[in-house]
Amino acid sequence: MSSTAASSRPSDRFAVCVFAASAESVAPAYRVLARELGGAIAAAGWELVYGGGRVGLMGEMAVGALQAGGHVTGIIPHQLNSAERAFTDVTDLVLVDSLGERKLQMVQRSDAFAVLPGGIGTLDEITDVLTTRHLGLHAAPLVLVDPDDFWAPFGALLDHMVAADVMPAATARLVVRATTVPDAIAALRDS
């Protein structure tokens, strides 16, 4: 990863990377949340960077941003192009060779990170960004959009790590939880 999250970004606009579920079985309320977040990112004049799929929360979020006139960059590995069905209507679609390259491109193109409900892939992305922030490799904020405590078990695990003295409390505080999309946008703006 680069020494700053934005150092190798190709554009000069503020970019927010959002990690989210690609599962089609997600709850309708999460779909609404994803569209709202995508629209709010666009309304703020920011670029949305995400995993490039048109399914699950990923697709809903991209649609929300596009409908609000936003710039959307999707990054997807060739092998997931069929599984997650790349969203070809985004502003920029970047096809890469691996999940590792996808994650690296997402981080390098972003100034901040937001997280919607997601599965093991989303968890991997969160921990990677948190680890690199902890190590001082970037200073980008990490905001969990969490209206119904979906991420509470993750927060409890971070607290447990602090209590067990395997992680400093300052690292746990790097993760901000927002209960509404407006709160998430404010946290991204103010961080």
| Arrangement of strands in the largest sheet | 4-3-2-1-5-6-7
Low-pLDDT regions: 1-10
Q: Please compute the radius of gyration using only Cα atoms.
A: 15 Å
- How many H/I helical runs? 8
Major pleated sheet: 7 strands, parallel
Q: Can you count the beta strands?
A: 7
**Which class do the helix and strand fractions yield?**
alpha/beta
Gross morphology: globular
Q: What is the element string, with H for helices and E for strands?
A: EHEHEHEHEHEHHEH
Give the fraction of residues assigned to helices.
40-55%
Strand content: 15-25%
On the 0-100 scale, what is the average pLDDT? 90
Distance between the termini: 20 Å
Put the structure in a nutshell.
With 191 residues, the chain is α/β, with parallel strands linked by helices. Helix content is 44%, strand content 17%.
Task: Present the secondary structure layout.
Blueprint: E1 15-19, H1 28-43, E2 47-50, H2 56-67, E3 72-77, H3 81-85, E4 92-96, H4 99-108, E5 112-115, H5 120-134, E6 142-145, H6 152-163, H7 169-172, E7 175-178, H8 181-190
Parallel strand pairs: 1-2, 1-5, 2-3, 3-4, 5-6, 6-7
Helix pairs in contact: 1-2
